[in-house]
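Methods: holo model generation. Sequences were used as deposited, without trimming of termini or removal of tags, and paired with ligand SMILES retrieved from the corresponding compound records. Each pair was processed once, and we did not select among multiple samples. The sequence and S-adenosylmethionine SMILES for this entry were:
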Amino acid sequence: MTPAARIQAAIEILDEILGGIPVEKSLTNWARRSRFAGSKDRAAVRDHVFSAIRCKRSFAALGGSESGRGLMIGAIRAAGERLDGLFSGERHAPSVVTAAEVGRDFDTDAERLDIPEWLWPRFQSSLGNQAASVAQALQHRAPVHLRVNLIKADVSTAVAALAAEDIVAVSHPACATALEVKEGARKISQSTAYRDGLVELQDAASQAVVAALDLRPGLRVLDYCAGGGGKSLALAAHQGVKVFAHDVNPDRLRDLPSRAERAGAPVELVSTAELDQHAPFDVILADAPCSGSGSWRRAPAGKWALTETRLMELTEIQSSILTKLSSMLIQGGVLAYATCSMLDEENGAVVDAFLSANPAWSETFRNTWLVTNGTDGLFTAHLMR
Ligand SMILES: C[S@@+](CC[C@H](N)C(=O)[O-])C[C@H]1O[C@@H](n2cnc3c(N)ncnc32)[C@H](O)[C@@H]1O
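and the model returned the structure below.
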């Protein structure tokens, strides 16, 4: 496909997404009806689509409309590139840009920074003078990080195994097990290093949330909101630690047994009904459902889907999870609260409200990771009674 044809494909996919079709579904639909597209074409179209969703407000302003075409015109203007070679009207290329398709100046900072207008004041109160740089970081794609699975390999062995398959990875400062992939990211899932369980795809700050726990042999650890199980596997990579994985939606745990098998990291799945018979636990990780604001680079549609009402609902769910889990911990155990959000309402405010309502509890650790430091944005706090 020519560069112009890739843009035309992105325009069609974006129109579907703006019409309400989920991002991955729309990309898959396009790939199915475009058998002529090679893997490089698919990757390039995907990059166009994700970039346009991350920057939906600013590209729409620059491109003159919130349509697939407007977003792609805005993308090209934002990159300072010429439109005429791409919007040529030739075969498979988008039609020539008309005089009506003019861009305009940004109305607000939130529009320039691609944050929903209602959210910008909260973003500023959470992040202070870092709000603008964090919002700018969210306009760009996330790096690819790996976790070295210490059950199978040490860091240098994993780096060498990846290098043998033309995947260049270097240590990331956020966590001792974290690697940042510099070259060959698209080869990871087919690589022997990945298939043999030497490495897992996992953001460095997600690894750091687990590394912040003092995990010793013999501890019984519950990952209460295990989801796909990324953190369960990181927990289970600690020798002698017994990991129980739970999720209110058991479907989300579906792939965890095969992932645990590949990693050589035993994890026991626990249903909601079985929790009481396994309690109390020494450590509970509550990686709570949240806005996902710390991972909006990877899942940018979430940035535009979030509403004030949903944010309020999430904070209520977060608080209720903490309250529920506080009765499942041994005396002297650690309740670790975590989110992949950078909004104070979901982080410090939830923990502070819990501590005010439960004076026997205290906080022993708190940290926030911001996207400006090259990881996803995450928060964690350790609570003890
Ligand atoms: C942030 S995700 C977990 C991500 C996962 N820990 C990981 O590292 O990949 C939050 C999870 O919480 C689950 N969840 C939502 N509401 C819940 C609730 N009330 N109790 C327990 N889990 C819940 C969701 O199904 C979702 O899988």
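The chain has 17 helices and eleven strands.
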